[in-house]
Each structure stands twice: as structure tokens, then as C-alpha cells.
Amino acid sequence: MNEQKRMKLICFFMSVLFVFIAVVAYVLRAPVIIASYLLFGWIGLHIASRFGIKAKEIFAIIYCCNIIAVIFLYIVYFLRFGNPYYGGGSDDWFFEFHAGQVAEYLGVFDYHLIRGNIVSQFHNSVGYVYFVSILFRVAKLFGGFHTLVPRFFNSLLLGLIAILVFNLATTQMKLRKNICMFSAVYLGLSPLMVYYSAHTFRDTLVSFILITLIYSWSCVSKFYSIKKLIVSVMTVFLVISLWEIRQFSAIMGIGLIGLTILFNQQCNQNSGKMNNIKYIGLITGLLVAIGLLYMNGTVTWFFERIQYLQSYYADYRIGQSNGLAYYVFSAPQPLGFILRLAYLAISPLPIITTRIERLLVDIGTIIQIFLLPFVGIGAWKMLREKYNLHILFAFLVIFCTIASTTFQGRHIIMYYPYACLVGSYGYQYCKDNGYRIRGIFLLMYFIIILAGCGYIVLKGGL
Q1: Is 162 exposed, middle or buried (0-12, 13-18, 19+ CB in 10 A)?
Q2: CA–CA separation, 249 vs 245, rounded Å?
Q3: What does the pLDDT read at residue 254?
């Protein structure tokens, strides 16, 4: 099927989905649902068109499938809890509740009044509350806010993340088109990504900002001066926004930008005097920035916060489980850190359940486990060849940070794009060098069976 026919088929599917969305909006008496579906879909397709016809196809597929998933989860939650929120009411409910108060009682420029008035003085994500309040204000133009609006927005973000992954795979990593397509579509339709993006959580937005920063600084050497200036201004804005949404992620983002610039500089073939001056300037700038952060106490706060999160979430996990998690989080260091890395790689751990949404997530985890060898092979080859190390280190930094601190399932969204890229590189290497892919899958199958038997024995012995 050629590209034109595929786009016609996708347009037909989006039109059918529009009719379905219209029915949902009529039943829920919320015209904003139709408006948000059309608006976010138009924004996504407009951005995707700048990356080519393949990117438009990827976005359309991922956006539509995620919209369906969002409505499906909305119905499941409503039937189970009587409301559409995680566990009957969690962070997603609180974000929307506080955002509604901001939109009702404060002006659009009263950001400084949110902390201490609408939320506590120590609230860890005032920026996301404010962002959702903007959606509340816009939704008033279409009859009022509905909880599906921020979830549809996450569907937009997930489509855009997939496009950036596709473009990084094609332009930066030089992977074959079919592998790039699979990597992007797998990312956008992975049950893990779809499930966590179907809530009013900040993680999808954080992931989008991080990969936007890395993508922009990966390509900055190809830009003219005016575009470099735009990227610099955009970076300042995004880092400040990220600080207000999740402070740890902002610090991580600054570090990843530095690594991206550093590795791109090292890979530059033209190692002349000008490049050496840039290299020295970069190191000097980073040292000055670290010095300033140290003097105002940010560095000390950062490491103290890491220690607090390590102990807090370890105690929380130990108290919540008497199974495998108990042994992982109660193990002494450095063994505990190694066990956390291994445990995060297979998280969320598949369980026997009758909850259909968790069953789909578990299927996603099983697929993820089967693909782990390619991530390992890809990481090993990238290190040996010193190839696209900024992508590899983005994956390693985020993955290790999550493993050593919060260990929240929904934080998987932040490292998953880079895991897909590293795994795609490993898969292409295996194909090009005659590795038997079926053999790798068969090996993982037996490992999973043995691990499952070991887990059952462990549980039985408790």
C-alpha cells in the first residue's frame, strides 16, 4: 500500500473516530471533548507534517489509538469506582481539583499566588497545576472543562514524543526505515506508555520536555545562528517550566543538555582551534553553573533529597510487599542498587489479576522483558563504538535515577523513549550480523519461565 492510500485510510479512521467522539461528547454533555480532539489532533498533524509523511502517519496512528484507550479507561474506572480517576482518586484528581480552583479564584497572571493559597507552600508541582488550569480556562470557551481534556492532551504529547524518537532514529542513529517506524509506533502504543498517559499525570509532559531538549541540542550544530538563538531561549523557558513541574527532572535536563553538547562536540570531525575554544567554553560554563548552584545550596539540597527519597520509598515498598520487592528494597548497598536496576527493568512486575487495564500493562511488561537483550546489546555496541552516546546516557541517567530514588511505575515514561532507541540499535546490529532473533526470544522465554517458578517458590516460602 502506497503512502497516499495509507493516508486516506488513516483519514477515514480519524473521521470514524470523530463520530464516536461526538457520541461520547453528547452522552457526557461535554462539547469540549469534540473541540479538544480536533484541536490537539490538528496541532499534532501540523507539527508532524514538518517531519514528513511518515511522521504524520505515526502521529495519526498513535493519537487515535491513545484517544480510544483514554475513553476505554474512563469507562472502566467509572464502572469500578464511580469516578474516572486512578484508584478512585489519586494525584490526577488533586491536580484537576487544584487547577479548577486556580482557574476560578485567580487571574491568569497570578501564578505567584498559587503556592500557599490554593496549594501548600511545599507543593512539588505548582507548574503542572497551573498548566492544567490553563486547560480549564480554554475549556470555558467550549462549554466547560472535562477530565478527558488533559488526557487527550497527553495523547498529543505521546504522538509527538514518538515523532521525535522516529526522527532521532533516522537522522541521528541512521537506522533503517522499517526499524525506525517500529520503534516509534511501539513506543506510542506500548501498554505501559498508553496506560500512564491516560491519566492527568505530569510524567508525559516531563518526558516530552526532556526529549525536546535532547533532540534540539542534538541538531543544534546544523542550525543557523538565529535558530541557535531560538533553541537557547526555548531551552531557558523549558528548563524553568520543568523546574516548576518537577525539580529533579529540571536538574536532570540540564545535565543531559550538557552531555548532549559534550558528546556531539567530541564526535565532530573538525577538531580545529574554534572547536577547542567551544569545548573549553562549555567546560568553563558548566563549572561556573555548578559553583553557583553549590553556593546557593542547590547541590547540597539535591543530594540530601536523593538520600531522603531513597530511604522513604524503600520503607514504603518494604511496607507494601512481602514478596520480591521486600528483598530488593531491604538489601544492603551496593547490592540493593543492582537489584533495583534489575527489578525496574521488569517493572511493573506482571501479576495475576482480573483488572483488564492491569492485564494489558502486564502484557506490555512481558513484551518489554523479551526486548531487554536488544537494549543490552545496543548499549554495549554504542559504548564500544562511541556512537550517539548522548542518547545512551540519557537512558542510563534517567533509568538509574528512577531506580535509586522514587521507583514509581509511571516514571517509566521518562526513560522509555531512549530505551526504544538503544534497543532498536541493538536489534539492527543483531540482524546485520546474523544473530538468530528467534533464538534470543526463545532464550528469554525460558528465563521468564525459570524466573516465574523462582518467584512462586519465594512467595510460597514466605
Answers
A1: buried
A2: 8
A3: 87
